[in-house]
Structure formats: structure tokens, C-alpha cells
Automatic annotation (TrEMBL):
This is Putative flavonoid 3',5'-hydroxylase. SUPFAM superfamilies: Cytochrome P450. Pfam families: p450. InterPro entries: Cyt_P450, Cyt_P450_CS, Cyt_P450_E_grp-I, Cyt_P450_sf. The keyword Membrane applies. Residues 1-25 form the signal peptide. It is found in: Membrane. Its EC number is 1.14.14.81. Its cofactor is heme. Belongs to the cytochrome P450 family. Residues 227-254 form a coiled coil.
């Protein structure tokens, strides 16, 4: 029998078995949230399409803000309104603070040894505290200011040169390159842009694979067939990443052997992690956790992937919207001119005074949230919410892309990029206003928010302040392609191309 005949046969056997099981099983949960009829075996997987956030928005319009679907064997609860999001991420946050085990994290995050996909519990708590203290807290974010200034300065110089030569610049590449250098310097203490490591493409592939709905996660018996080819790609990427991280750690250990860790001079994040290796993370707890080499690799990789393209993706969307809306670009340039002046670049200390910039960034997050479905959560216990029974181990998907376009929350022109909607209303980005939660909320909310927001605001302000931008080949602003590419982060399919002209005196 050929492998394909075997696959079809297996599929039908599974189909018949699941139909029999469904017919004879008693419903375990009295009242699940509403949802469409499911197909045997795959449930609603076929309904997700290439842009799941859009398909799920469409379904939520019919079935409501708390909806239930089945992705293969997995019960998924879709949350699509600010009120519902508050119930799941604030009122009952503790019950939804875990993450599901997925193939991507098994391959890429060394099981659940990192932070992003770690199960809710003492290990996650200790690692999160460690990363916050050593890399992400406001004082650390501030300490990286000179590094950001230096890297952004280099970008401005290269754009100025390109502008003088009348070149069309691939702005997407420039912004990702900048963010990559900033991230590596923060984590590794040095630039990693000399091609020795080549992490950039690998990290982008990892982000894409982590966001994909992998059939193997939902219908495990189909996993070995790898119909989508995702497992093969995951294995390839994870092997390359592991080799690279090993190389980086090896180099560091060699350097460390030539000096004393205890001196604590110029310690960067890798140094800190290596200095903690094989020591108890939590000496006072009942179950003691140690950081070994694998944990260190997993944490490093999580920090790189979490920081790497989130900020860059946001900056590209914001600048693209500004290029599509010359009126808003002009308003922002005028604000920068009056607050900063035309004789110098933007400093981080200017940011709190730039109110219009802050509105532009909020509006961009509303329409283009980097993580449109947040990062999936998993329910820890059975619970009843808003009269619905939510079973233990359900996958919780919060569609913030859809919340950002909810006409009940925002005014009628929900699709329009209109920063002024934030004028005179107090909506922050810190996860307390559930109509706008680009960084998530609650226990698993983004710990890198301060760092990410500073980078997004500063880079965007600098690009708009230092340059006038023109679309190439007479392209009209309204014709700029804004198509989306779905992964763990939602990026712009087409690279943003534009001609810069230096405008400072
Ligand atoms: C514009 C920039 C960024 C955006 C929009 C963003 C967004 C998010 C979102 C939506 C989540 C999931 C939250 C949830 O489940 O409720 C998240 C988690 C996370 N983010 Fe960010 N992020 C950004 C920048 C960063 C940076 C710079 C770092 C630093 C390394 C970072 C580290 C993390 C980590 C470690 C998690 C997982 C936290 C956990 O599971 O406990 N993020 N981020």
C-alpha cells in the first residue's frame, strides 16, 4: 500500500472512530459558549484561513464576544470584546495565566524552559523576575539609551547619504536592521551584525512558525504526516539556532575564563545568565529550580525573538500609515518642530512632551497590533464565565485585532487611521484599558513593554523629524499596499520603499 493510500485510510478510520465516540459520549460541559457546527476530526481548523484574525472576527460577529470552536482535539475559546477580555485577562487572570504546549515551543524553546511558553508556576515566576530585573525593568531600559542613540544616529546618517544620492530606500530592511542591532547589543553586549551568527533570518522564520496554526498541535495523530511541512521547518530552524547559541555561549565562556565573574564589570544579559548557571534560582522554595545550559539557551532565544521584530514591525506599520496620510505626517512634523526644534535630533527626554506622536503610535497599535491574537493562553481549571462553562485546558485566543475595530467601542470610522480619536480620552497602553491591549494584560502581559514602547516612539519620531519622505515612482499614498502576513507577529507583506530627504538644519 502506498503512503498516500495509507494516510487516507488512517484518516477515515479516525473519522469513523471519532464519530462513534461523539455519538456515545455524554457532554461533559453543560453550557459551552456558542459556536458554529464542527467537522469531525478537524473541528473548525478549516475555517481559519491564511489570516485567522480576520476569519475569527467574522465568526465573532455571528456568535458573539465569547465564542467556542474546536481546533482538532483542542477546545478554543475566542474572546473578541473589551468586556470579555477583561473577564479573562483581569477578573480571572490567574486561571488563564498558563500557556499551551505546542510543537513550536517544544522545538524552538527547548520544551518550556524559556519564558514565553513556560507553564504558569514557580519556574515561570522566577525566570520572569530574573529577566525583568536584569534586562527589562525601567532602569535597565533607561540604561540602554546611549546605545539606542548611537544606533539610531548611524541609521540617520545612512539615510541622509541615501537621500543625497536620490536613492529609494528599503525602509523595512533598515528598520529591522536597526532593531536587530539594538536587540543584540542589549542582550549580548555587542553587535552581531558581521555575519558570524546570521540570526536575523532564522529568528524571523522562528516567529513565523511559532504563530502558525500547526495541525500537529490539534490533531496529534496527523502530526507524523506533517502535511503543512511545519515540523520539518521547525526541526531545521531549531538545529541552526541551537548551534548558534552554543557558539555564542562557548565564546562567552572562553572570555569568562580569562577574567573573574565576580568582578561584575560590564556584565550584559548573557554574562548574568552564565554567572547563574547551575545555581538554584529559588533557594527558599520547596522545589528548587536550577538554570542549566539548556535553560540559558531557551531564555536567550525567547528574549531575542520577543524583542527582535515586535518593535520593528510596529515602526514599519506606523510609518506606512503616515506615508498614506500626508496630513497626519505634517501634523507630527509640526509637533516635532515646535517641541524639538530643527537644529537637533530627537532625544528620549523629548518623548513625554510629544502628545501627537503618542496618539499616532496608539492608533497604529489599534489597527495593526503586532500580536493580533496575543500569545495563546491555556485555562488551568474548569471555570464558569458570563454563564458559560470553560473547560480546563481550553486554548484562550484573544482577538485584539478585532477589538481594535469594534464599532461599539470606537466610532464608526473604525478602519480609518485617525490619531485624533485619542484626543481628550484617557486610554493607555499598559493593559488597563481593554479596548487597546497591544501588550496583553495581567500576569502574562508583556514585560518588555517599556523597552518596546521607547524604541517604537523614538525611532518613529527620529525618522519623521529628520526626513521628508516620498513614495517611489509616483505611487499615490492611497495605493500603498497594506496587506498583512500572519505569524506570531502580524507584519506588512510588502516592504516599505521610500525616498528620504534630510530636513534638519
Ligand atoms: C512593540 C513592542 C512589543 C509588543 C507589541 C509586544 C507584545 C507582546 C504581547 C501581546 C505579549 C503577550 C501578552 C499576553 O499573553 O497577554 C507579549 C509577551 C511577551 N513579551 Fe512582548 N511585546 C513587545 C516588545 C517586547 C520586548 C522589547 C521584549 C523584551 C525582550 C518583550 C518580551 C516579552 C516576553 C518575555 C513575553 C512573554 C511574557 C510571559 O509569558 O510571561 N516584548 N509581548
Amino acid at each position: 500500500m502506498s503512503p498516500s493510500t495509507m494516510t487516507i485510510l488512517l484518516f477515515f478510520v479516525a473519522l469513523i472512530l471519532s464519530l462513534i465516540a461523539a455519538a456515545f459520549s455524554k457532554p461533559k460541559h453543560k453550557k459551552l459558549p456558542p459556536g458554529p457546527l464542527a467537522l469531525p476530526v478537524i473541528g473548525h481548523l478549516h475555517m481559519l484561513g491564511n489570516l485567522p484574525h480576520r476569519s475569527l472576527q467574522h465568526l465573532a460577529k455571528k456568535y458573539g464576544p465569547i465564542m467556542s470552536i474546536r481546533l482538532g482535539n483542542v477546545r478554543a475559546i475566542l474572546v473578541s470584546s473589551p468586556k470579555a477580555a477583561k473577564l479573562f485577562l483581569k477578573t480571572h487572570d490567574a486561571n488563564f495565566a498558563s500557556r499551551p504546549r505546542v510543537q513550536a515551543s517544544e522545538h524552538l524553546a527547548y520544551g518550556t524552559m524559556g519564558l514565553v511558553f513556560a507553564e504558569y508556576g514557580p519556574y515561570w515566576r522566577h525566570v520572569r523576575k530574573l529577566c525583568t530585573l536584569e534586562l527589562l525593568c525601567p532602569s535597565k531600559a533607561e540604561a540602554f539609551a546611549p546605545l539606542r542613540r548611537e544606533e539610531i544616529g548611524l541609521l540617520v546618517l545612512s539615510l541622509k547619504k541615501a537621500g543625497e544620492g536620490g536613492e529609494v530606500v528599503d525602509v523595512t530592511n533598515k528598520i529591522y536592521g536597526l532593531n536587530e542591532d539594538i536587540t543584540y547589543r542589549m542582550i549580548f553586549g555587542c553587535a552581531v551584525d558581521d555575519g558570524r551568527f546570521g540570526l536575523k533570518d532564522i529568528v524571523q522564520e522562528a516567529t513565523l512558525l511559532t504563530g502558525a496554526f500547526n495541525i500537529a498541535d490539534f490533531v496529534p495523530f496527523l502530526g507524523p504526516f506533517d502535511f503543512q511541512g511545519l515540523t520539518k521547518r521547525l526541526k531545521k530552524v531549531s538545529k541552526t539556532i541551537d548551534q548558534l547559541l552554543e557558539k555564542i555561549i562557548d565564546e562567552r565562556e572562553q572570555v569568562a575564563n580569562t577574567r573573574s565573574w565576580k568582578q561584575g564589570q560590564h556584565e550584559d544579559f548573557v554574562d548574568v545568565l552564565l554567572s547563574l548557571m547551575n545555581q538554584p534560582l529559588n533557594p527558599n522554595d520547596e522545589q528548587v529550580h536550577f538554570l542549566d545550559r539548556t535553560n540559558v539557551k531557551a531564555i536567550l532565544l525567547d528574549m531575542i525573538t520577543a524583542a527582535f521584530d515586535t518593535s520593528a514591525t510596529s515602526i514599519v506599520w506606523s510609518l506606512a500609515e503616515l506615508l498614506r496620510h500626508p496630513r497626519i505626517m505634517k501634523n507630527l512634523q509640526e509637533e516635532l518642530q515646535s517641541v524639538v526644534g530643527m537644529d537637533r535630533m530627537v532625544e528620549e527626554s523629548d518623548l513625554p512632551k510629544l502628545d501627537y506622536l503618542s496618539m499616532v503610535v496608539k492608533e497604529s497599535f489599534r489597527l495593526h497590533p503586532v500580536a493580533p491574537l496575543l500569545v495563546p493562553r491555556e485555562s488551568i481549571e474548569d471555570i464558569t464565565i458570563d454563564g458559560y462553562d470553560i473547560p480546563k485546558k481550553s486554548r484562550i485566543i484573544v482577538n485584539i485585532w478585532s477589538i481594535g475595530r469594534d464599532p461599539n467601542v470606537w466610532s464608526e470610522n473604525v478602519e480609518e487611521f485617525f490619531p485624533e480619536r485619542f484626543m481628550n480620552i484617557n486610554i493607555g497602553l499598559r493593559g488597563h484599558d481593554f479596548q487597546l491591549i497591544p501588550f496583553g494584560s495581567g500576569r502574562r502581559g508583556c514585560p518588555g513593554m517599556q523597552l518596546g514602547l521607547t524604541t517604537v516612539r523614538l525611532v518613529l519620531a527620529q525618522l519623521v523629524h529628520c526626513f521628508n519622505w516620498e513614495l517611489p515612482n509616483g505611487l499615490l499614498p492611497q495605493h500603498l499596499d497594506m496587506s498583512e502576513d500572519f505569524g506570531l507577529s502580524l507584519s506588512k507583506v510588502k516592504h516599505l520603499l521610500a525616498k528620504p530627504t534630510y530636513r534638519l538644519i
